[in-house]
């Protein structure tokens, strides 16, 4: 088997170190890192790549970005104790980004959470949090009584984001939200993480949006969603709602060629492609994903894999 980690190091030079999926780096712990927990776009669950979720760790503080199905399991696989999570960001309320939001918190509580987790997301996350406790009232109240656990409800502090701007400022990290169109959804936010080791921008799901390049201007790392147009026809042929799904995909996501345009206009040091649509078509290779990006962007390109780790600075 090819030593993928060395191949990636080679491709990226010595500044950035990427650990292979499923392999944790043995070297000293970096201060800032990104782990791509789930890289497959869309709500379908399969045995391949997990649904969308990302992790930024700065010092000992984990920030989770999106909670697609499988996020709790992927954190465990990445070696991050679930109760250590401090912040959750939801980009938008498509289920491949929020389906495991409440359950991630629940799993933290089940594993001994004692400190609050703050969550941020577009309008609806506060209501969703309240509804989660209704949905799970019986179990939660039974366990509080029967197992002597603390009441989890005050420990999940949700906040609706209604406008662009700074949503969180800790001693070493500033997180800024930026609205980007994902028709028909308008309450949809890209997030910028300014860390001591560099700036990371997550695009969220988005239609081609040149304004996103302004938001990501000069970032060290841009993690951008992507759509491989030639595979869309094959994908929609497998569903009954093919024509409608095709229209949604083309109107609300960014083609690989346009991803390259955004990365070039933003002048980022590194583009990480993730949220692959389709994310479970084995005939689409890494070369397919990057070919049209390279027409417009000449910087470093990484095709993310589940549990791949990127260390900053890049
Ligand atoms: Zn999505
Ligand atoms: Zn979406």
CATH structural class: Alpha Beta
Major sheet: 8 strands, mixed
Strand order of the largest sheet: 1-15-2-3-4-5-6-7
SSE sequence, one letter per element: HEEEEHEHHEHHEEEEEHEHHHEHEE
Average the pLDDT over all residues and give the rounded result: 92
Q: What ranges have pLDDT less than 50 throughout 5 or more consecutive residues?
A: 1-15
How far apart lie the N and C ends? Answer: 27 Å
Helix count from the secondary structure assignment: 11
Shape field? globular
The secondary-structure class comes to alpha/beta
Give the beta-strand count.
15
Description:
- This protein is α/β, with parallel strands linked by helices and 314 residues long.
- It has one domain (4-312): Metallo-beta-lactamase, Chain A (4-Layer Sandwich).
- The chain is 30% helix and 26% strand.
- It has eleven helices and 15 strands.
- The strands form two sheets. An eight-stranded mixed beta sheet has the order 1-15-2-3-4-5-6-7. A seven-stranded mixed beta sheet has the order 8-9-10-11-12-13-14.
- Strand 11 (198-202), helix 7 (210-215) and strand 12 form a beta-alpha-beta unit.
- Helix 8 packs antiparallel against helix 9 (242-252).
- The longest helix has 11 residues, at 125-135.
- It is globular.
- It starts with a helix and ends with a strand.
- It binds zinc ion (2 copies).
- One zinc ion is lined by residues 92, 94, 182, 205.
Write a brief caption for the model.
With 314 residues, the protein is α/β, with parallel strands linked by helices. The protein has helices at residues 4-12, 71-77, 95-98, 101-110, 125-135, 137-147, 210-215, 229-236, 242-252, 256-266, 286-291; strands spanning 18-19, 32-38, 53-58, 61-65, 87-89, 117-122, 156-161, 165-169, 174-179, 189-195, 198-202, 221-227, 270-277, 300-303, 308-312. The strands form two sheets. It has an eight-stranded mixed β-sheet with strand order 1-15-2-3-4-5-6-7. It has a seven-stranded mixed β-sheet with strand order 8-9-10-11-12-13-14.
